[in-house]
Design a protein that fits this description.
- There is one protein chain.
- This protein is mainly alpha-helical and 278 residues long.
- The protein has 14 helices and four strands.
- The radius of gyration is 21 Å and the shape is elongated.
C-alpha cells in the first residue's frame, strides 16, 4: 500500500539522475551525517516530486496532497520499509541510493521482458514499440512507417544496451541543453553530434546499434538528421508513462487539442459500434 503522492515520488525517481536526489537529501540533513528522520522524508518526497514536470494535478489537489504528507493517517509500506513500523529509524542516503538504483533496475528489466516477449534480446521493432508506447504525436504514423521501412528484420538490442538508453533518459534536461546549442547555431543534429551530446550529458556513450535505431526512427526528412525537439517529447512521455502533459501556450493550442481529442473520441465510438467510417 502506497499513497498517490508516493506513487508520483517513485515515478520521479525513475526519470531523474541521482545527483538531484543527493542534493535534496543533503539540504535536509542538518547534522551532516547523511541521515534523515521520517518527518524530513516527507519534505524530501515533496521536493523530489515537485522538481518533475508532471501536470496531472491542479494546485488545490497538490495542496491537499501536501497536507496528507504532513499528517499521515497511516503508515504506508514505503514508510515502514524506510523507517520501521513505529517510524523511529533514520534513513541513510546510501540506503536510499541503493533503493532508487534497485527500483530503476527492476523496472527496466520488467519492461525489457514485457516488450521482448520474455526473450533475452529485444527486436528493434519491439524497442520502437516500447519507445513509442505512450506517444500521441501527429508524426506517430510516420515513425512507424520508418520502423517498417528502415529497420531490418532480425536485428536486436541487448539488455545492457537497453539499460544504457534508460540511463540516458534520466538526463534529458542536460541533453536538451546540449541540443539547444545546435539549434542556436542553426546546425543539424547528425549522428556524431548526437553521440557527443549524450556523452556530455550522461558521462556515458550509447552503442552505435542504439544510435542507428533512434536515427532511423526519428529522421523525418530522410536527411540523416534527428528531429530532436519531438524526439525529446517522445522520451518525456515514455519516461513519465503517459502522465506528462506539456503546458498549452495559447488559446489556439487549446482548441487544437480539443479538436484532436474530439476526433479521437468519435473514432473510438464508431470503432466500438462496429462501424468502418474511419
Amino acid at each position: 500500500l502506497i499513497s498517490y503522492t508516493e506513487y508520483l515520488f517513485l515515478l520521479t525517481i525513475l526519470t531523474k539522475p541521482h545527483t538531484g536526489f543527493h542534493v535534496a537529501f543533503k539540504m535536509l540533513d542538518a547534522d551532516g551525517n547523511e541521515m534523515i528522520e521520517k518527518k524530513e522524508f516527507f519534505k524530501l518526497q515533496k521536493i523530489i516530486s515537485k522538481q518533475d514536470d508532471l501536470k496531472t494535478m491542479k494546485t488545490n489537489e497538490i495542496d491537499c496532497q501536501e497536507q496528507v504528507m504532513k499528517e499521515p493517517e497511516i503508515n504506508t509500506t514505503l514508510q515502514m520499509y524506510f523507517f520501521g513500523k513505529r517510524g523511529e529509524r533514520k534513513l541513510h542516503y546510501k540506503e536510499f541510493r541503493r533503493f532508487t538504483e534497485n527500483l530503476q533496475t527492476e523496472i527496466q528489466e520488467m519492461e525489457f521482458l514485457q516488450f521482448s516477449k520474455g526473450l533475452s534480446f529485444m527486436r528493434k521493432e519491439d524497442f520502437a514499440e516500447w519507445l513509442l508506447f505512450f506517444t500521441n504525436t501527429e508524426n506517430k504514423d510516420v515513425y512507424w512507417k520508418n520502423v517498417r521501412e528502415r529497420l531490418s528484420a532480425g536485428e536486436s538490442i541487448s539488455l545492457d544496451e537497453f539499460k544504457s538508453f534508460c540511463h540516458f533518459t534520466t538526463h534529458l534536461e542536460d541533453f536538451a541543453i546540449a541540443m539547444q546549442m545546435f539549434s542556436l547555431a542553426n546546425r543539424p543534429v547528425r549522428l556524431a553530434e548526437f553521440k557527443r551530446a549524450v556523452k556530455v550529458a550522461t558521462g556515458q556513450e550509447l552503442s552505435n546499434n542504439i544510435l542507428d535505431t533512434v536515427f532511423k526512427i526519428f529522421d523525418l526528412d530522410d536527411d540523416e538528421c534527428l528531429s530532436h525537439e519531438e524526439f525529446l517529447g517522445v522520451l518525456k512521455n515514455r519516461m513519465h508513462r503517459g502522465l506528462w502533459v506539456p503546458q498549452q501556450q495559447s488559446i489556439q493550442e487549446y482548441w487544437k487539442c480539443v479538436k484532436k481529442e474530439s476526433i479521437k473520441g468519435v473514432k473510438e465510438a464508431w470503432k466500438q459500434a462496429g462501424k468502418g467510417l474511419f
